[in-house]
Amino acid sequence: MTASTDFEGFPAETIRFLGELAGNNNRPWFNGNKHRYEQWVLEPALDFISAMGPRLERVTPHFTAIPRRVGGSLMRVYRDTRFSRDKTPYKTNIGIQFRHELGKDVHAPGFYVHIDPESCFLGVGMWHPASGPLGMIRDRIVEDPDAWRAARDDTGFRRKFVLSGGSLKRPPRGYPPEHPYLVDLKRKDFIAVTEFGFDAAADSGFADRVAADFAAARPFMSFLCTALQLRF
């Protein structure tokens, strides 16, 4: 597939196919409609990732946009059902993660795009980080609370994004329970999200919109990367 910086938006057939997949989440139906998946989901998603490459580089040169069918920024359509009660085999959304160049999996710092019939949103930050990276972020909040406040409360960032994710019920072990940012120290995820309608994803300016929103998250992402001793 030839990479392109132009993207005309996700076609209406994309959301239609994902809705039909949600109602027919089984291998026979998917195999019989795989050509539609490739035409209306896979190809537009890879085109979008290609278009985001130069735009993301202007936001930060240390995160990657890789338009590959396997092993790139596009998440697999196949669900891992080994440890889940839900045995349906396919994801009914498009998930795209623009990961840090040193990141190895979805738990690395990243910029995320999610499209499905129920909700569409952008995410930034770290989802379910391991104990080591999570501790490094908490340590930096304690060591440099002013930097955390500046990143968390940056006007441009908060205008677009809302902090989200899971939190502990009690203060994490080893951190002061009276700390002024205890709410943040208790976070298990350091993520923020902003929602949009599918009509935005279908618009020819979608890549520019996503890039602008990601740019608004620079202070937040820079704080996380600094805490993890990663370049931003």
The overall pLDDT, averaged over residues, is 96
Strand-residue fraction? Answer: 5-15%
Q: Tell me, what's the shape? A: globular
**Based on helices, strands and strand pairing, what is the structural class?**
alpha+beta
* First and last CA, distance: 29 Å
Helix content estimate: 40-55%
Low-confidence stretches: none
**Rg result:** 19 Å
The biggest sheet, with number of strands, parallel, antiparallel or mixed sense and barrel status, is: 5 strands, antiparallel
Order of helices and strands: HHHEEEHHHEHEHHH
- Number of separate strands: 5
Number of helices: 10
- Strand order across the biggest sheet? 1-2-3-5-4
List keywords for this structure.
232 residues; alpha+beta; five-stranded antiparallel beta sheet; 10 helices
